[in-house]
Amino acid sequence: MEFNIKSGSPEKQRVACVIVGVYEARKLSFAADLLDRISNGFISDVLRRGDMEGKLGSTLVLHSVPHTLCDRVMLVGLGKERDFREKEYRDAVRASLAALAKTAAVEAVSYLTELTLKKRDVEWMIETAACLSLDAQYRFDQFKSKTDDAPRSLRKLTLSVSRRSDLAEGEVGLVRGLAIANGMKLARDLGNLPGNVCTPAYLADTARALAERFGCECTVLEQDDMAELGMGSLLSVGKGSIQPPKLIVLKHNGGPAGQKPVVLVGKGITFDTGGISLKPGEGMDEMKFDMCGAASVLGAFQAAVEMKLPLNVITVVAAAENMPSGGASKPGDIVTSLSGQTIEILNTDAEGRLVLCDALTYCERFEPAAVVDVATLTGACIIALGHQASALFSNQDHLSRELQAAADEAADRVWPMPMWEEYHEVLKSNFADVANVGGRPGGSITAACFLSRFTKAYDWAHLDIAGVAWKSGKEKGATGRPVPLLTQFLQDRADTAAGNVVRRGRPRRDAADTSHDDDAAD
Q1: In this predicted structure, what is the pLDDT of residue 153?
Q2: Total domain count for the chain?
Q3: Which of 176, 195, 283, 427 is 20 to 30 A from 522 via CA?
Q4: Residues 378 and 484 in one domain
Q5: What is the pLDDT of residues 36-75, one digit of tens each?
Q6: What is the domain-level CATH number for residue 211?
Q7: Which residues lie below 8 Å from residue 72, measured CB to CB, with a gap of 6+?
């Protein structure tokens, strides 16, 4: 889709559709009021007939509005004006995109980006609209032989700003929004690929392609390399598969020399049968999504590079396939991790922590400023938090607060969880330094406690994304979360490193001060 940022009056737009907002009680937004005035009250008359009341997310498409140059005017319900916040803005944008997809319009100009929203600036409005627009158009149909029933795609979307002086700020927001959306698309594509295509080798090739495209560094450790280093834990997971495991490292040297890097670590189990501790057959097809942690850190890495963040960022992906075979690890086996700690494998279906622990130890060589690992680690996380939020664990309160702030800013929620010493007790083993599971109670917590044993050398956080990485049912597929959160976290880190104030939006002008540069109409 092509995007433009322009300033101009809505009645002068020669386009297939102009999108404007209506609050409850039929109160017109500034752009809608301009159209109403030029059309001699046409929109007000329609609203008085009761076809629309401004309920949040409702839409009404009007054709041939008098004295306008556009084919259609779309009215989008904004809800109560006093309650209009970030969530309502996102809901209104999503509603407009869904309604557009049901029309024949292939180009549109949206004036929702001019709405007044407290504590939010033009950059944020444009960034959010652009990201939502690309995400709404996402389709994964590359394996379908026929796609004729696919909805008509919007080819061009112009996002309007009130004044010419807002254009530069809007362009900055557009770059950010598209970068985040592209990162989410990469994460969704990787997550949605079947396990017979997206193997550890495929993830490695994807990383190499990213490095070549953006001029970054890429290193892939093969099975022999990991064996030489002593990564017995990671290697144990891939023993049952004909697909060899990989440890993938991407580096973006965007910051100054000597700046300690921020490291993102992703769990890349490209298919998880559970191994010898075999999962139930029902729903096992969804275990292709068990590499969504890897997909999200690759997506966030791409977004950071597209945005040219002045920050040193390293992405590490621990990739393997967990299969049962005569060579697979067995319950009761003991392996030695890269850290030297021995692990008793009580359950081969708790394999994510086995690949991550060696990847986390490997990160010590980078002398990182912070490490954040991302994993679809436990079903217990879904029991605790549902599908609304990722579980957040950290060994540093300040890092936890950073991630919570970034999550709130990106509307990609997290919830902090405890790792008290009492939880570590259940991981004791009679035969090794630590067991890989501690029973069902507090399963997501004890999994994080296991990982924490391998992160003593640096500031670390763990995101359990099992509840948010994909959807089941009719909307089955990867979501691209938590790419927005991770990208915002990296942006905040870059701002802090540069001595800038972390951006949380600036107040918009009052509605009474909103005006258009008529000579900039297009």
Answers
A1: 78
A2: 2
A3: 176
A4: yes
A5: 999 999 999 999 999 999 999 999 999 999 999 999 999 9
A6: 3.40.630.10
A7: 16, 17, 18, 61, 62, 63, 103, 105
Q: Give the tokens for residue 410.
A: 């990106």
> Annotated binding site: which residue ranges?
267, 272, 290, 349, 351
Annotated binding site for Mn(2+): 267, 272, 290, 349, 351
pTM over the 0.85 mark: yes
Catalytic residue among 80, 279, 413, 471: 279
Distances (CA, A) of 245 to 240, 279, 293, 412, 420: 11, 21, 16, 30, 33
User: Which contacts of 213-219 are long-range, i.e. CB under 8 A and separated by 24 or more positions?
Assistant: 214/252, 214/302, 214/305, 214/306, 216/250, 216/251, 216/252, 216/253, 216/305, 217/249, 217/250, 217/251, 217/253, 218/248, 218/249, 218/250, 218/251, 219/248, 219/249
For 145, residues 6+ apart whose C-beta sits below 8 A from its C-beta are none
Instruction: Name the active-site residue from 185, 246, 353, 493.
Output: 353
Any residues with CB less than 8 A from the CB of 251 and at least 6 apart, and which? 216, 217, 218, 261, 312, 313, 314
Please confirm whether the linkage preceding 482 is cis (ω < 30° from 0). yes
pLDDT for residue 519: 40
Which element (helix H / strand E) includes 447? helix 443-452
Residue 192 predicted with pLDDT over 60 = yes
- In 3D space, the residue among 360, 330, 481, 494 whose CA is nearest the CA of residue 410 turns out to be 481
Q: Are residues 327 and 454 in the same domain?
A: yes
For the question of residue 80 being annotated catalytic, the response is: no
Look at residue 508 in the predicted model and tell me its pLDDT: 42
Give the CATH number, domain containing residue 33. 3.40.220.10
> Does residue 124 sit in the same domain as residue 252?
no
Q: Has 279 been annotated as catalytic?
A: yes
What would the pLDDT profile of 481-517 be if each residue is shown by its tens digit? Answer: 999 999 999 999 999 998 887 766 544 444 334 455 5
Of 513, 15, 136, nearest to 4 by C-alpha is 15
Average pLDDT over residues 177-194: 98
Q: Of 341, 273, 240, 302, which Cα lies nearest the Cα of 486?
A: 302
Q: Cα separations (Å) of 441 from 228, 280, 447?
A: 37, 20, 11
Predicted local distance difference test score (pLDDT) of residue 118: 87
Can you read off the two tokens belonging to residue 316? 């590490």
